[in-house]
Amino acid sequence: MRRPLIDAAVLLTAALLVGACSPAPSTPADSEQMVSERTAAMPAEANDTDVHFLGMMVPHHQQAIDMAEVLLASTVDDPEVRDLAERIRDGQQRENEQMNAWADEWGIDADMTMHSRHIANGMVSPGVFDSYAALEGEELRTRFLELMHFHHAEVIAMTRDQVDNGGYAPLQEMAAEMVEVQTAEMREMEHMYGGVPTP
Q: What positions does the domain DUF305 occupy (predicted)?
């Protein structure tokens, strides 16, 4: 069992992370209806929940991809962790390609841009990400498991909302698969960490 890092530096970083993972303050533009203007290209069954999910999930996935890339580019040689990072990177890249394709087809660029500015649902601030990317060895391995577990856990509620309230069936199906895959990945992280990671 690997011992979690519990020194003062990690505790300070955890405190910074909690604040950094809070949703960005709302602006007047953000408080307006989620779909700024329904486009003619949107499927009839697509609704505001679908548009919001696309806008928020694409940057959320991209940060997970970037976190995985940092781990994979490092000297961390734990085969289980590297395999997990590869699966997260490859799976979320495929999902992002599909979600971006839908957004392009629907012509919802303004909504995608608006939501891309948010740091929420387990995402970390640029400062926390930079601190993570500067780590090496066992510290990087441990921090990857901590941050990625939190990243997954915090977004699952939004993903379930898409399953329950979205209107576009293919996107609902993708969201349901995300919940299943990310829940299983969290259990893997807990096994590798030796308990439930606390960011």
A: 50-193
